[in-house]
Amino acid sequence: MSEKAEIKAGEIIARMDRIPIWGLSYIFIGILGIGFLFTFYDIFDINVSFIQTAVTIFHVSSPSSPQIPLLLGPAVLLNLIGYVIGSLVLSPVSDIIGRRRMLMITMIITGLGSLYNTFVNDYLNFVMARTITGIGVGADLAIVNTYIGEVAPTNGRAKYTSLVFLFSTLGATLGIWLGLLLTTPPAPFPLGLPFALGLSGFFAVNGWRVMYGIGALLALVGLLLRFSLPESPRWLISRNRISEAEKIVNMMEDKATKKLKQLPSLPKVITPYLSEMLSYADTLKTIFSNSQYVKRFVILFTMWLFGYMTVYTLAAGLTSVLASLGYPPPEAGIIAAMGSIGFILVPLTTFAVGDRLERKVWTAISVIFTFLGGLLIALAGTNVVVSFIGSIILFYGFNLWVPISYAWTAESFPTRARSTGFALCDGIGHVGGGIGLIIIASFISSLLSSGVTTGLAVEVFVIIGVFQLISTLIAISSGHKTANKRLDEISP
């Protein structure tokens, strides 16, 4: 590669790094956000609706049967194994063929999986459909976060990751509340929804199918919108497509100049890595032949592994866990649904102040709220107001560290292997979600023989929180600093 090309590439990256605001159209955040809305809708739509699914086609005897969490565990685990497959097989392809192309491919796969779920009639096909959907979701989350990290300003990577994550909370909220509306019987508020449709007629047995059909439609919308996304300039430069990258950076500079009148001076030019040919083996070698990247992989992977044990137990299984602890399904569903308020507060918090603290500090703040919210639910008894407050705090806690850690993981690997590095850490780490739910389901089932008590509920929520505590201790004790640093300084 000529020295002239390397200098030119470094200057383009320096020009990009000096832009202190979002340099692309905000429409592109919305486009990425619509995709995230669907992926998190898919993660959370099973939370409430799975009870109806189990009763309808798995022939479970009762909506409160402890068998339901036991069936839910493998379904979530296989969905997350699909997530791992998508992350490890598809996400690295974006390091080779580009972020934009793969973002369209992943949305197609995710939508087809959700459409398959709409028409299944047995447990085997249900979990197969969830696995296919997981393949698309796993790759999509890795690539979106990589893309945001590469185009966001140096002082705002967590901020703009959080802005896209706001759409995630809307998707999760939609998934939970639609499940409550379409799959549960009506009950007087606050013990349920008075106008819920799941008691009789079409929705009594097919409400859950409608949920997955809506998911497929959302995926189609997300796919069509993504055709207008520009490619990541950093990826183009890494592939020696310098003129294409410069056109996009010119556009970003023009847009920023209209708002700021004058851009800051250029930072130091850092010569980037350029390669016209790159294989998956090359991206893996980039990470595992470098002791710094290996250390980061170990820290971030174990952080995600234990953290997701808590996240997915609550995100996919809170309604089923509460029903097993004796809550009527409509009440269990609405307690989980109220938690969406806390979820929405997460990106509002991290958008405002996410870049002011080092990434790992947020894991410690997050776990405190998780324990507080879980204990409030466990001790609330029949006081639904306290249960609602506990659910809001709980959802705020177990999600608060996630968007910040998305930014942290993407920052921790170089452009030529960024999507691969994210996929290895976050993708494999998702296995923890299924493992955690199976452990909790088995724990509840083994203890129910002695009767449901407040003490049992406390034990359940403490065990759920302990996984996240382990994740936090790993991050705090060993995590590296990345906030407000240039990407090529963090990960050359």
Structure description:
The protein has 492 residues and is mostly helical. It has a single domain, classed as Growth Hormone, Chain: A. It is built from 18 helices and no strands. Helix 2 (26-57) packs across helix 11 (291-324) and helix 11 (291-324) runs parallel beside helix 15. The mean pLDDT is 90.
Task: Describe the structure concisely.
This protein is mainly α and about 500 residues long. The protein is built from 18 helices and no strands.
Bulk shape: globular
DSSP helix fraction = over 70%
Do you know the CATH topology?
A: Growth Hormone, Chain: A
Secondary-structure-derived class: mainly alpha
Main sheet properties: none
Distance between the termini: 17 Å
The CATH superfamily name is: MFS general substrate transporter like domains
Rg (CA only): 22 Å
User: What letter string, H or E per element, gives the SSE order?
Assistant: HHHHHHHHHHHHHHHHHH
The number of helical elements comes to: 18
CATH architecture: Up-down Bundle
Low-confidence stretches: none
The CATH class turns out to be: Mainly Alpha
Instruction: Kindly report the average pLDDT value.
Output: 90
Quantity of strands, as a count: 0
Compute the number of structural domains: 1
Membrane topology: Multi-pass membrane protein
Keywords: Membrane, Transmembrane, Transmembrane helix, Transport
GO molecular function, one term: transmembrane transporter activity
Transmembrane segments: 21-41, 68-90, 102-120, 126-148, 160-182, 210-229, 297-322, 334-354, 361-380, 386-409, 421-444, 456-476
